[in-house]
Amino acid sequence: MAYEVETAIIQTMAADDLWIPLVDEPIGGIVERIERENEDIAALVESPHRLLAFRTFAYIRCGILLGRLLFENDVPGYDGSESWVETLMRDPEHRAALTAEVRAVAEEVAADPKYDDEGPLGPDEQTRARFRAFAREHLGS
Q1: In the chain, which stretches have pLDDT less than 50?
Q2: pLDDT for the residue numbered 133
Q3: Which residues lie closer than 8 Å to 52 by C-beta, 6 or more apart?
Q4: Rounded to whole angstroms, how far apart are CA atoms 32 and 138?
Q5: Closest among 141, 66, 50, 51 to 101, alpha carbons compared
Q6: Where are the domains of the chain?
Q7: Is 3 strand, coil or helix?
Q8: Residues 6+ apart with CB under 8 A from 94
Q9: Which of 3, 63, 2 is CA-nearest to residue 29?
Q10: Segment (H or E) for 14
Q11: CB 3.0 to 4.6 Å from 110: which of 27, 44, 115, 140, for a disulfide?
Q12: What is the pTM of this model?
């Protein structure tokens, strides 16, 4: 019953009315770092709604993957030096698995046709070049 009520409430809200801050450390930081290190991932989710969907599902799926890795691997007790997530992230295989998961989410969101009409989050390179030329011409720099 609670699920039905929650679903009804969410369905009545306009898409633009729903913006939830989803960054939760350390998962938000991990996803952000993977995005920065892999420009191809960031390029797949440039529009505002794609970015929101991507981050929502990337955080969830990375959290699930980290939980699974925690149960599958021996992690020493917390001694104040680093968290269990940082310990897991030192392993290149775990890092690669998280990167693959984030990339898969980005590809799935990019393939969703309901975002096809959206433009990128910022100006494209041609627009930036025109602005720089305009600024040089009018500001003399």
Answers
A1: 1-3, 5-22
A2: 83
A3: 19
A4: 37
A5: 66
A6: 20-139
A7: helix
A8: 69, 73, 88
A9: 63
A10: none
A11: 44
A12: 0.66
Judge whether 100 and 31 are in contact, CB under 8 Å: no
How high is the pLDDT of residue 7? 45
Determine whether 104 is exposed, middle or buried from the number of CB atoms within 10 Å of its CB (0-12, 13-18, 19+): middle
Give pLDDT, residue 108.
94
C-alpha to C-alpha distance for 116 and 128, rounded to whole angstroms: 23
Alpha helices in the chain (DSSP H): 2-12, 27-37, 39-44, 48-72, 84-89, 92-111, 125-139
Residue 30, number of CB atoms within 10 A of its CB? 23
The confidence score (pLDDT) of residue 72 equals 92
Q: How far apart are CA 106 and CA 92, in angstroms?
A: 21
Q: What's the confidence (pLDDT) of residue 11? A: 46
Give the pLDDT confidence score for residue 122 in this predicted structure: 62
Q: Which amino acid is at 105?
A: V
Residue with tokens 């930081």: 29
User: Residue 107's CB: how many other CB atoms inside 10 A?
Assistant: 14
